[in-house]
UniProtKB/TrEMBL annotation, chains A, B:
Residues that hold ATP according to the record: 30-35
Domain tRNA(Ile)-lysidine/2-thiocytidine synthase N-terminal: 24-209
Signal peptide stretch: none
Protein name, per record: tRNA(Ile)-lysidine synthase
The record's note on its domains: The N-terminal region contains the highly conserved SGGXDS motif, predicted to be a P-loop motif involved in ATP binding.
Length: 339, 339
């Protein structure tokens, strides 16, 4: 593997403005090959763009000695390269059993929490825009798309992981795992084996080790195509979000934590856009939509074909309710709002 | 399997108005399980809806005795049930070698040609709307979606086969193969084994026999979910087609086989919608878009970022050309049209 992919990625980062001069980048650094290459890449990129870089290692409290070794390796590597380093210890097994979550899911939540916390601290301290850089690559993207596809999770699922999503950036989404490994080999960079390949839940590993290779038998560029479909779906999702925002602008009234939407106008839009409109309305009311499921959206949508007085429960004590040909989204105990 | 699926399908056919009273339905009848069940279903449906039904068998000229046996079986079954029957012999091997096509692709083309020809004749003779009924089911749909997904064929690929597409209807798209087989068993209906499972090209069989079962290990409802994604993509496709038509209405000028589109307005739309706009413009010019490939669409799209005078070739002697911030689609030797 040539130096080519470094340059390709510099151009990618530049094209999509993933990192701009002056910004602070917090890299999630496990010590595995992907994040080691990203650390190397960003270190090299600092020669071209003036930004601050810090590597952060989250110690999961699982796999005993190996986890200590990963932490030690990460710290040493950062020190060797003169890159500021922080680490934090989280108790994944405890969090997992307390919340009835699988180890993978629990680890993911705690890892992101720790990264977000450090990001906010760093940003607050300096007042400079701070982003989290994640090392997910095209193969990870393909796995995510397939996983979501088989769950039937619609457009947002098919759009997979985003290149840029809030404070998070994923500069490696455009390259294959094998290109990363090849480049690390050329650079003679040792890295920690990611043992999670064995530990992780069945599904993800099965997709990675059986399903994707089987798909590549059908089409050798299957992973690239899946990744391209994800980009297309992502564009589509942004387009539909804009259409939903335009719709709410025209046909929705927002006041004091309540939103009223005209049903006759809703009915003129296709079902997938209506669901996007509900999603956006709830996000405006609640600030986020983490607890909003597909079934909430379908329930809201069936409301608009039901009679006046019908209602459905939404997360966080909100409801959707029909009155006089208007769909109201509001707190359960709040007053309705006239359109 | 209960009589349930017959009723479910009656409702499905009714809901989507696939067959209306008075219409003529030409069923593609291979003698295999799927089309035998569809023949049975439509025969039963005639008790509720008054429409004409004819079964047509296309003899492929391959697999010697077995093909004769399939034809005989089909004819006998139609006779037994009192359903008008026609058959036609096509020479798939000859067509295949003359056109450098695989047997499957050649068979598909000749089969559809024969069906379309008979459909047109029947319609012309009676002056009554005539449709072709095809027996593809949900498992076929899932295979198509996966095949297209791995080829990276975008929204129209992911939308798979359509429930209704021009004169063609696919009443079985909402049910699983296993439900059809189960129902045939309960009805004690014998059918011809579809030997194409062995003869067909590698890809399709591999998807059917290896990939789909592997996907069902990840999610037991994978086939249903793929089919649902296809429906969603289909809705999306229709929505985008409408948006493209609206756009051409506002920002395109059509005259004497030429179309002119304002570039500044094109640039305000997302890339996937621009491609839909080009596709629609070419369809308006040429009546169809069979020869229009994705690379034509991408070439047209890069034109709008190029300078005046740049052009690109399109199928059937057409070109796309930029002049004075306008994109012209026209015959290569035609005059340009002012916007």
């Amino acid at each position: 593997m040539q130096k080519g992919i470094d340059t390709e990625l510099f151009l990618y980062i530049k094209k999509y403005k993933l990192i701009l001069p002056g910004e602070q980048i917090l890299l999630a650094f496990s010590g595995g090959g992907d994040s080691l290459y990203l650390l190397y890449l960003l270190k090299e990129l600092q020669k071209h763009i003036a930004f601050s870089l810090e590597a952060m290692h989250v110690h999961h409290g699982i796999r005993g000695e190996k986890a200590e070794r990963d932490l030690q390796f990460s710290e040493n590597k950062a020190k060797e390269w003169g890159i500021p380093f922080t680490s934090v210890r989280v108790d994944v097994p405890a969090f997992s059993s307390e919340n009835g979550l699988g180890l993978e899911e629990a680890g993911r939540i705690l890892r992101y929490e720790a990264l977000e916390k450090r990001r906010a601290e760093w940003e607050a301290k300096t007042g400079v825009l701070t982003k989290i850089a994640l090392a997910q690559h095209m193969d990870d993207q393909a796995e995510t798309v397939i996983h979501n596809l088989l769950r039937g999770s619609g457009i947002s699922g098919l759009s997979g992981m985003k290149r840029e999503e809030g404070h998070r950036i994923r500069p490696l989404l455009s390259i294959r795992k094998q290109d990363i490994i090849g480049r690390l080999h050329v650079l003679s960079l040792q890295y920690m084996e990611d043992e999670s390949n064995e530990d992780l839940q069945f599904t993800r590993n099965y997709i990675r080790n059986s399903l994707i290779p089987a798909m590549e038998k059908v089409n050798t560029r299957a992973v690239q195509h899946l990744s391209k479909e994800a980009e297309l779906m992502n564009e589509l999702e942004l387009y539909l979000e804009k259409k939903a925002a335009d719709f709410l602008q025209c046909f929705g009234t927002e006041e004091e934590g309540k939103i009223a939407i005209s049903i006759s106008n809703l009915k003129e839009e296709p079902a997938f856009l209506r669901r996007e409109i509900y999603r956006m309305a709830v996000r405006r009311l609640q600030g986020e939509i983490r607890d909003l499921s597909g079934s909430h959206l379908y329930a809201l949508d069936s409301l608009i074909f039901a009679g006046s007085g019908k209602r459905t429960e939404l997360p966080k004590g909100y409801i959707g309710e029909i009155r006089n040909k208007v769909l109201y989204l509001r707190k359960r105990d709040g007053k309705v709002l006239d359109l």
